[in-house]
Design goal:
The protein is α/β, with parallel strands linked by helices. A 14-stranded mixed β-sheet has the order 1-2-4-6-8-10-12-14-16-18-20-22-24-26. α12 packs antiparallel against α14 (796-812), α12 (711-730) packs antiparallel against α17 and α14 runs antiparallel to α16.
C-alpha cells in the first residue's frame, strides 16, 4: 500500500516518508500537516496586509517580502506565524479601515492612532476580531456611529476612540465587554443618554472591571443615571465634562470608593450637591464648575487626599470660606470664581503647606482678614474690595502666567547646532521628535514649580526605555491651559546616538504615548497626543505656530462654547445684583474742557429725546436686547432717528461709552453707521443714529424683518461689511479694530447695503508701535478669534476671523453655536471639494435660492475658511477679502447675465455696491 501511495505522489518529502517506520511516518505527517496549515494562514494574513498597504498607501521599507512574520515587517508582530499585533501609530495613513480587516482573525492589538487622514466609518466587521485585547483608533477622523458589533469583542481590555468625529449613541452592547478596563470616547460628537442595563438591554453599569470612563467633550444629554454607579464598580476616573447633562448628581456616586478623579464641569447639572460625595475618600481631583448648583458649598471633609477643587461659575451661597478646607492636608488649588461669596472673607486658619492658589474672582467680597501662613496665591480680582482705596492690591491684580516649563541642561554646556538641529538636555545636537501632549486634567496650579515637570520627564524616559526605544533625553517646553482646563505641553524627544528617529521609531514613540495607561506622576492625569512633528528643523524659539495650532486647532468649538457660558454667567449675575461697573464719572467728560473733538455728533438733552419719543412710549419701541431698548423718533428738524437707550443695570463703563462716541464721530464711510449724537443727562446713556428701515442682518436671516436675502443680496451684504472693516483697518487714522463683528451689528439700509455698527468694544491702535495690542479679551462667543483668546494679542486679523464666521452664517442662517455645534467645525467636517457645492447643500439656508443660482458659492466658502484659520498669520487682510468678494460677485453676475438676460437686470455693478448715502444708520437689537 505504501508503494501505491508513493506512485501516486510526486512530492519527494512524502516519498521519503513512505520509507520510514509507521511511528516515524505518523510523526512526520503531523509535522507536515502543522506547517502546511501555518503556511496557509500566513498567506492569508499576508494578503490582508497587502490590501491594507494598498488602501492606506503605505510602503515601509521592510514591507517587501511575502512573509510579514519571518522577515519582521515594521509595526507587525506575530505568534506562530500569525499576525497578532498591528501598531502603525502616527504613520500618515490615508483612506479607510476596510471591512476585510476581519481576515486577521488572530490579531490582539490594533493601534492606528494619530493618523488624521484615516477616515470613514468603523466597519461592523471589526466585531469579528474576537481575540482583540487592545483597540486604539484615537486621533483619527472616523465618523458615524460606533458599531454595535463592538460588543462581540469579549476579551477587549483597552478601547480608545478619542478625538474622532463619531456620532450617535454609545452602543449598549459595550456593556457586554466584561473585561474592559479602559474606555475613552473623549472629544467626539456622541449624544443621547448614557446607556444603562435593563431586562432587555445592556449598559455601562455592567462594566464592573472598568477603571476609566473618559466621556468628556461630547453631546450626552439627560440625567446621570442613578443605576450607573454601584459598590461593585472599580472606577477610578469618571470624566463627564463638556456635555449637556442635566438634573442632580445621583447620590449613588458616593458608592464609588475607588474614585480618584471626578469631572462633571460644563454641564447643566443643578440642585444641591449630595452629601454622599463626602464618602469619596480617595478622590484627588474634583471639578464641579460651570453648572447650576445652588445651596451651601458641599462639605468635603472626608476627601482627605483631595488636591484640586474647582467649583467656579455656580450659584453657591457662601458668606464665609468654610473652615473645613484647612483640614485637607494635600490641597493645592481651590477655585470658587463667580459664586455668591460675599461680605467679609475671614481666612483665619492655617492651610497645609501644599496650598498654591485660592481663586475667588468675581464674587462680592468687601473685606478681608488673613491669619497664619500666606505662601499661597490669593486672587480677589473683580470683587468690591478691589474698588476700595487704601487697600493692599496684590490680590486685585490678575497674576502673570507662571513661566513655561523648560528643561535645563543636564550638567553640561549647550552646544551650537547647525542644519536646524537642537541641543538636547545632554547637550547633543539632533532633530527631536516633537509632539503636543494634552492632559485631561492636572492637580496643581504652580506651573513655575519644575519639580512636577521633572518627574514627568523621568517617567516618560523610563517608559520609552521599557519599550526598547532608543531615547537619549526628553525636554518639556511651553504650556497652555485651554478653557477645557486641559493642559497642552510641547514635548521634544531626542534620539540616542543618531541624528533623528526614523518613521518606525517615531511610530513606536506615538504608540507608547497614546497608551493612556502609561505610568506617570500622580499630579498629571491621562493625556493624548494631539500633534506630532517628525523632523523638527526650525529654530528652537520659533514655536508659536506649533503651540497655537496644537492648543487651538480642533478645539475652537469647545473654547468658544466654554467662554460663552462663562461670560453669560458673569453678566447675568452682575445684572441681578446691580453691580455693573461704571469705569469713570461720565458727567466730567462732557464738560467743555474735556469734551472730545467730535465731528458732526452733538450732545442732546434728555428733554429733547423724551419729547420726540413721547416719553419713551411703547409705541416708539422698535427693538430691544441685552443693552437696552431702541426707540424710533423724529427730531424737530423732521429727521427720523433711532435712539439706543441703555438700561440702568447694563450701562457700559464710561471708557466703552466714550470710545464708541469718539470712534463713530471720526470714522466716516458708506458702510459704517453714522452717529448723530449722544445724551448723558440724568444718569442716562443714549446714542442717536440716523434711522433706516431694514433692521439688522440677524433679523433678515431669521425672517423676522420680512426681508428676503437671495444669493446676490448676501454677497452684497458681505462686500459692504468687508469694505467697512477694510476702512477701519487700513484707512482710518489711527487704525481701529472693531472686536464685535456679528450679524446683530451689521445693519441694512433701504437698499440692503451693509453698515457696521456698535463700536462699544472697539480698540484704536493709536500709540502702538507693534502689530498688535495686548488687552483683556472681549467680544461675542462664536465670533471670537481663538488666537486672540489664547494670547490676549488683539490684531486686525481678529476682526477677519469674526467676519469669516459671519460669512458662514450668511450661507447657512445658523447661529455660530447652535445645539452644541460650532458652525466652523460643522462646515469643516462636511466639506468635500470633490462634490457639488462642497457637499454643503443640507446645511445651506433654504431661503438663499436655487442650487443653480449659487454661482461662486464654493469660492465664497473657500474665502470664509481662510478667514477662520486658527493661526492669524494665515488669514487674509480685509482689503484682500474685499477684492475676493468683488471677484465672486463679478463671476456670479457674468454667469447670470450669460444664462438669463432678464435676470441680469437684478444684479448691480460691483463698483456701485454700498454706494448709498453714508449718513444713514439704524440699530434694532443690542
Amino acid at each position: 500500500m505504501a508503494n501505491e501511495m508513493a506512485n501516486k505522489v510526486s512530492n519527494p518529502i512524502i516519498c521519503k516518508l513512505m520509507d520510514q517506520t509507521l511511528a516515524t511516518r505518523v510523526f512526520m505527517l503531523l509535522v507536515l500537516f502543522k506547517f502546511g496549515i501555518a503556511a496557509e494562514a500566513n498567506s492569508m494574513d499576508y494578503n490582508s496586509l497587502k490590501n491594507l498597504m494598498q488602501e492606506w498607501d503605505i510602503r515601509p521599507p521592510s514591507w517587501k517580502s511575502s512573509d510579514p512574520c519571518a522577515h519582521g515587517w515594521e509595526g507587525i508582530d506575530c505568534t506562530n506565524s500569525r499576525v497578532t499585533s498591528i501598531k502603525l501609530a502616527g504613520m500618515g495613513l490615508k483612506g479607510q479601515l476596510p471591512a476585510d480587516i476581519q481576515s486577521l482573525s488572530e490579531i490582539e492589538t490594533l493601534d492606528l492612532s494619530l493618523n488624521k487622514e484615516l477616515t470613514g466609518p468603523i466597519p461592523t466587521s471589526i466585531g469579528n476580531l474576537t481575540k482583540l485585547v487592545n483597540l486604539n483608533l484615537a486621533g483619527c477622523s472616523f465618523y458615524g456611529p460606533i458599531p454595535q458589533t463592538i460588543g462581540s469583542l469579549k476579551h477587549l481590555y483597552y478601547l480608545d476612540l478619542n478625538n474622532n468625529n463619531l456620532s450617535g449613541q454609545i452602543p449598549p452592547s459595550i456593556g457586554n465587554l466584561s473585561e474592559l478596563n479602559y474606555l475613552d470616547l473623549t472629544s467626539n460628537k456622541l449624544g443621547g443618554n448614557i446607556p444603562i442595563s435593563s431586562e432587555t438591554t445592556l449598559g455601562l453599569d455592567m462594566l464592573h472591571n472598568a477603571q476609566h470612563f473618559h466621556l468628556g467633550n461630547n453631546h450626552f444629554s439627560g440625567s446621570i443615571p442613578t443605576q450607573l454607579f454601584s459598590s461593585k464598580m472599580a472606577l477610578m476616573h469618571l470624566l463627564l465634562d463638556r456635555n449637556n447633562l442635566s438634573g442632580e448628581i445621583p447620590s449613588t456616586l458616593g458608592l464609588m470608593q475607588n474614585l480618584q478623579t471626578l469631572r462633571l464641569d460644563w454641564n447643566l447639572l443643578s440642585g444641591p450637591v449630595p452629601l454622599s460625595l463626602n464618602n469619596l475618600s480617595n478622590i484627588a481631583v474634583l471639578y464641579l464648575s460651570n453648572n447650576q448648583f445652588v445651596g451651601p458649598l458641599p462639605d468635603l471633609t472626608g476627601m482627605k487626599t483631595l488636591n484640586y477643587v474647582d467649583m467656579s461659575n455656580n450659584t453657591f451661597d457662601v458668606s464665609k470660606l468654610p473652615d473645613w478646607f484647612s483640614s485637607l492636608p494635600f490641597l493645592t488649588t481651590l477655585v470658587l470664581r463667580n459664586n455668591n461669596l460675599n461680605g467679609l472673607l475671614d481666612i483665619d486658619t492655617n492651610y497645609g503647606n501644599q496650598l498654591q492658589l485660592i481663586d475667588l474672582e468675581q464674587n462680592f467680597i468687601t473685606n478681608l482678614k488673613q491669619y497664619g501662613g500666606t505662601n499661597y496665591k490669593l486672587i480677589l480680582v473683580d470683587n468690591p474690595i478691589c474698588n476700595q482705596t487704601n487697600m493692599e492690591k496684590n490680590y486685585c491684580i490678575v497674576p502673570p502666567s507662571d513661566s513655561s516649563p523648560s528643561t535645563p541642561p543636564n550638567n553640561c554646556v549647550p552646544v551650537v547646532c547647525s542644519s536646524g538641529k537642537v541641543s538636547s538636555p545632554n547637550c547633543k545636537c539632533a532633530h527631536p521628535y516633537t509632539v503636543t501632549l494634552v492632559f485631561l486634567y492636572i492637580s496643581f496650579s504652580d506651573f513655575g514649580n519644575s519639580t512636577y515637570f521633572t518627574a514627568l520627564e523621568i517617567s516618560l524616559i523610563q517608559s520609552f526605555w521599557d519599550h526598547n526605544i532608543p531615547v537619549d533625553s526628553v525636554s518639556l517646553d511651553s504650556h497652555s491651559l485651554d478653557l477645557l482646563d486641559y493642559l497642552h505641553l510641547v514635548l521634544e524627544i531626542f534620539p540616542y546616538d543618531q541624528d533623528r528617529f526614523n518613521e518606525s521609531e517615531a511610530s513606536a514613540l506615538v504608540s507608547v504615548l497614546n497608551n493612556q495607561t502609561l505610568s506617570r506622576p500622580k499630579y498629571f492625569g491621562p493625556f493624548f497626543v494631539q500633534s506630532g512633528l517628525l523632523y523638527y528643523a526650525q529654530h528652537r524659539g520659533s514655536r508659536k505656530a506649533l503651540i497655537i495650532g496644537a492648543a487651538v486647532g480642533g478645539s475652537v468649538l469647545l473654547l468658544l462654547l466654554a467662554l460663552l457660558l462663562r461670560v453669560y454667567a458673569l453678566l447675568q449675575k452682575r445684572r441681578e445684583n446691580g453691580q455693573w461697573n461704571r469705569a469713570i464719572p461720565l458727567q466730567a467728560w462732557i464738560s467743555r474742557s474735556t469734551l472730545p473733538q467730535l465731528k458732526g455728533a452733538r450732545l442732546f438733552s434728555f428733554k429733547e429725546l423724551k419729547e420726540c419719543t413721547n416719553s419713551f412710549s411703547e409705541a416708539n419701541d422698535i427693538g430691544s436686547g441685552g443693552y437696552g431698548k431702541v426707540y424710533q423718533a423724529v427730531l424737530p428738524t423732521g429727521e427720523m432717528v433711532a435712539i439706543k437707550r441703555a438700561k440702568k443695570e447694563s450701562m457700559q463703563g464710561g471708557i466703552e461709552f466714550k470710545a464708541e462716541v469718539e470712534l463713530l464721530s471720526r470714522a466716516h464711510h458708506n458702510n459704517l453707521v453714522s452717529l448723530l449724537g449722544f445724551c448723558l443727562e440724568q444718569d442716562e446713556q443714549m446714542l442717536i443714529y440716523q434711522y433706516v428701515p431694514n433692521g439688522n442682518l440677524t433679523d433678515s436671516l431669521s425672517g423676522k424683518s420680512g426681508v428676503r436675502l437671495n444669493w446676490m443680496r448676501r454677497l452684497k451684504v458681505a462686500l459692504g461689511t468687508a469694505r467697512g472693516l477694510a476702512y477701519l483697518h487700513e484707512h482710518a487714522t489711527p487704525p481701529i479694530i472693531h472686536r464685535d463683528i456679528k450679524p446683530n451689528n451689521i445693519l441694512l439700509d433701504k437698499d440692503l447695503n451693509a453698515k457696521v455698527a456698535d463700536f462699544g468694544l472697539s480698540r484704536s491702535m493709536a500709540g502702538s508701535d507693534r502689530d498688535h495690542v495686548t488687552t483683556q479679551v472681549k467680544g461675542t462667543m462664536g465670533y471670537l478669534d481663538p488666537e486672540y483668546f489664547m494670547t490676549q494679542e488683539l490684531t486686525e486679523k481678529s476682526d477677519v476671523y469674526s467676519f469669516g464666521v459671519v460669512m458662514l452664517e450668511l450661507i447657512t442662517a445658523r447661529r455660530p453655536i447652535e445645539h452644541g455645534q460650532y458652525i466652523v467645525r460643522v462646515v469643516q467636517m462636511r466639506m468635500d471639494k470633490t462634490k457639488v457645492l462642497y457637499n454643503l447643500r443640507d446645511i445651506l439656508d433654504p431661503a438663499i435660492g436655487l442650487v443653480t443660482e449659487l454661482i461662486g458659492l464654493e469660492m465664497f466658502v473657500d474665502l470664509a475658511m481662510l478667514c477662520v484659520k486658527d493661526i492669524r498669520d494665515r488669514r487674509p487682510r480685509m482689503g484682500q477679502v474685499v477684492k475676493e468678494i468683488e471677484n465672486i460677485i463679478n463671476v456670479a453676475s457674468f454667469d447670470a447675465a450669460a444664462n438669463s438676460p432678464s435676470a441680469s437686470a437684478g444684479y448691480e455693478d460691483v463698483s456701485k455696491v454700498g454706494s448709498e448715502d453714508p449718513c444713514r444708520g439704524h440699530v434694532l437689537e443690542y
